[in-house]
UniProtKB/TrEMBL annotation:
Belongs to the Gfo/Idh/MocA family. It comes from Mesorhizobium denitrificans. The keyword Lyase does not apply. Residues 130-251 form the GFO/IDH/MocA-like oxidoreductase domain. InterPro entries: Gfo/Idh/MocA-like_OxRdtase_N, Gfo/Idh/MocA_oxidoreduct, GFO_IDH_MocA-like_dom, NAD(P)-bd_dom_sf. This is Gfo/Idh/MocA family oxidoreductase. Keywords: Oxidoreductase.
Length: 334
């Protein structure tokens, strides 16, 4: 059975990653794309060899699609995801699922009621580097994990800035853009859930309208692990990384908080340093393979709707903490 996809949003991320990932599946086909601009829909469809370009959600949902990928601005996700679910379409939605965790749970409910698959596009948990870290921890290679650090402050290129740094009403800001990813990656690698977060944010000159372009967060997890993370749009030369420290060893991952299958992971114990081997499969290709399998009733998406609720609840708590100056409990309400 061919799974026919419709793109809700003529986006850069779909063009750079998702279209190719869908087409890399033996049973995947992109048949339509929607933009609020008819001209943009038509030009995007032509440029990316997609049969149909439409300018309304109804038109896309009635264009013969089985699944949709939503990559519009964040404030549109709720309405579009619920409409797709009610039309019987499987939903892969960009993070964050919505502007609030309460709205994210509405999407989860709509998809469950409709009997369709819901996935959150948390690409980082599909990286071979993070999977190698998770496996090393689960195998006890660093002993009991006690602390972690995430370095995920980058420079947001001009062509991606736009609403992310100017429109609070669209769900802009670095916390809803990057902290959600760090929440999910920490949960995945540690196999643990966060219970509390303390955050401070900054507006260092790139963002406006009250939005933040940098954040530092302190996390507490159920197991007792503590973590720190740095998210930003404004650091051109920082590099990215992920460390996990345990009672018997440490993991040092470099250049891994990215959309591409790159970077290194080093395990350090009393025996010395060991570079871990991991596959270099495309993150989105792996994600789409799991999603297609879930549609066929085999397993679940790499990042489920519940995972999306968890990450959004974490980001929501971070914003509340930054505003109040206090630690805030993370409660996904699941």
């Amino acid at each position: 059975m061919t799974i026919r996809w419709g793109l809700i949003g003529a986006s850069t991320i779909a063009k750079q990653y998702m279209i190719d990932a869908i087409r890399a599946q033996a049973d995947g086909e992109v048949v339509s794309v929607m933009s609020s601009s008819a001209d943009r829909a038509a030009s995007y469809a032509k440029e990316n060899h997609i049969t149909k370009g439409v300018d309304s959600l109804d038109a896309l949902l009635s264009s013969g699609v089985d699944a949709v990928y939503i990559s519009t601005t964040n404030e549109l996700h709720l309405e579009q995801a619920v409409a797709a679910a009610r039309a019987g379409k499987h939903v892969m939605c960009e993070k964050p699922l919505a502007l609030t965790s309460a709205d994210a749970r509405k999407i989860l409910t709509a998809c469950k009621e409709a009997g369709v698959v819901l996935g959150t596009n948390h690409h980082l948990r599909n990286a071979g580097a993070h999977r190698a870290m998770r496996e090393a921890i689960a195998a006890g290679r660093i002993g009991k994990p006690v602390a972690a650090r995430v370095f995920h402050s980058v420079y947001l290129p001009a062509h991606l800035q736009g609403w992310r740094i100017t429109k609070p009403e669209a769900g802009g800001g670095v916390v809803l853009d990057i902290t959600v990813h760090d929440a999910d990656t920490l949960r995945f690698v540690l196999g643990d859930d966060p219970t509390e977060i303390t955050a401070i944010t900054q507006s260092s000159g790139m963002a406006s309208g009250g939005l933040e372009d940098g954040a530092m967060c302190l996390w507490r997890f159920k197991s007792g692990v503590i973590a720190q993370s740095h998210e930003g749009f404004t650091t051109k030369f920082a590099g990215t990384g992920f460390e996990v420290h345990g009672t018997e060893g440490s993991l040092f991952a470099k250049d891994v908080m990215t959309q591409n299958p790159i970077g290194t992971v080093t395990l350090r114990t009393e025996k010395g340093d060991e570079e871990l081997n991991f596959d270099r499969e495309g993150l989105y290709v792996r994600s789409l393979r799991a999603f297609h399998a879930a549609i066929r009733g085999q397993g679940q998406p790499a990042a489920t709707g519940e995972d999306g609720v968890w990450s959004l609840a974490s980001a929501e708590a971070a914003l509340q903490s930054a505003k109040s100056g206090k630690a805030v409990a993370i409660n996904p309400g699941l």
